[in-house]
Amino acid sequence: MTDLSKFGFNKIRWTIFTLLTLSFILGFFHRFAPGAFAEAVRGEFHISAAALGTLASMHFYTYTVMQIPSGILIDRFGARLNVSIGAVIAGLGSIVFGLAPTFAVASLGPFIVGLGVSTIFVGIMKSNSLWFRENQYGWISGITMLLGNVGSVLAAGPLAVLLQWFSWRSIFVVAGILSVVLSLLTYWLVRDTPQEAGFQPGKGYLPSQGPVSPNHWLQDLKTVLSNKTIGFTLWAGVGTNATFYAFAGLWGIPVLRDGFHLSNNEASLYTTVALAAYGAASLAIGWFSDKIGLRKPLIILGNALSSVGWLGLALLPWNPGWSAWLLYLLVGIAASQIVVTFAVVKEVVPSSICGMALAFLNAGIFLGVALLQSCFGWIMDLSWSGAMANGAPQYTFPDYIGGLLLFAAVSMVGLVSSFFVTETYCQSVKEKAA
Ligand SMILES: NCCCC[C@H](N)C(=O)NCC(=O)O
Fold it and tell me: Where would you find the membrane-spanning parts of this chain (predicted)?
């Protein structure tokens, strides 16, 4: 084995990080593209809005269901193999969607894409845990989240512009080909561990690396599921991050439109800026947590800010303008707490099974978003006056208060849970000898 220099080490790890991040960003393209291309796709297949919603949601179903299996596979066989295979599958799904002759075949596209991209986020987080030192994990997770978030912004505006020159079909086929190319590059250039890339252990700049777990995966899964801190961090993450995603992704715009008569464009500015603040705060909170060597106070602070934000949105007499900006930014910034939450989850289990633990938290947040979005709508319908216009129900601000109070309650449960999270001092538990 050759002992390469620190410069060589940095070059290899940033190449790995860049390749995995590009796949992550492409994953965001696949997640948000059906929204950007909604009218074009609907027009071509002559389908209703509900059918389009079902088509887009296929991605989320397979993605969520596949999180824990992906974590298990990544812990066993590494990020390189799993992300390479995942990116090829995602690419094929995108090509199937782009070439689909019928709506039934098109529905298969997001299903296959969701299956493929389900390996990417856990793959990158696991790879980060093996290529970056423990006291850099918050910072590198923050950069990962920030770049993913950039992907979601890119997927909205620039996609709509691309559609002026190219058909949605050709854009999906090209995205599919790009995924396949990224998969080949990942297989060629990514290495699961510094040792695999030829670095000798014992150098100061090398992160320590645990062995592959000797246990049956079911036993490791039991270890993850029975870890109390993981349970508490999940509640804390749902209280901040799932509530925010449920709001920014669905209810944050209609509440301004129905409650204050803002146009769609004016209202969407608030959620876009809140998402941008979330991305920037993710980087800051990860860096700050590593710097002070603490995780728990930031988890508590995130849930406290989130609770105040949701209570403010439900009960204060806010209006579009500075008070709305303040409250939207507050819940967005509080949601960045998820970076520290992911770091704790990685640190309270041996590194050999951290893929599974990260996947469990991610799946829980996805499920939380889906459930919270539905419950919010269901609560709105309970208070709805029955007013209709052009065949659609008409809501007013008071109809949104129940949903906002629900989010406040979930954040407060998260706040209580966050006090029970174990402080890791930014260090992983040690691997037990096999
Ligand atoms: N519907 C979005 C939920 C986001 C959950 C989590 N904060 C996250 O960013 N996960 C990364 C991923 O895309 O899997």
Answer: 12-33, 45-65, 77-97, 103-125, 137-165, 171-190, 232-255, 267-288, 300-319, 325-345, 357-380, 400-422
For residue range 180-205, list pLDDT tens digits in order: 999 999 999 999 999 888 887 766 66
CA-nearest residue for atom 11, ligand 1, is: 121
Alpha carbon distance 87, 186 (integer Å): 9
Give 196's contacts (C-beta < 8 A, 6+ positions apart): none
* pTM confidence score: 0.91
Sign, Cα dihedral of 338, 344, 347, 349: negative
* Token pair for 387: 């007013």
Distance CA 385, CA 389 (A): 12
- 111 Cβ inside 6 Å of ligand 1: no
- 408 with 379: CB under 8 angstroms? no
Considering the domain architecture, whether residues 164 and 268 belong to the same structural domain is answered as: no
Atom of ligand 1 nearest to the CA of 365: 5
For the chain, count helices (H), then strands (E). Answer: 17, 2
383 C-beta neighbours (distance < 10 Å), count: 14
Q: Is the CB of 245 under 6 A from ligand 1?
A: yes
Domain that holds residue 201: 6-209
Q: pLDDT for 133-175, tens place per residue?
A: 999 999 999 999 999 888 777 766 677 778 788 898 999 999 9
CA-proximal residue: ligand 1, atom 6 (nearest): 362
Give domain status of residue 35, yes or no. Answer: yes
Per DSSP, the three-state class of 291 is helix
CB of 238 sitting under 6 A from ligand 1: no
Q: Is 366 in the pocket of ligand 1 (CB under 6 A)?
A: yes
- Residue 122 beta carbon below 6 angstroms from any ligand 1 atom: no
| Total domains present in the chain | 2
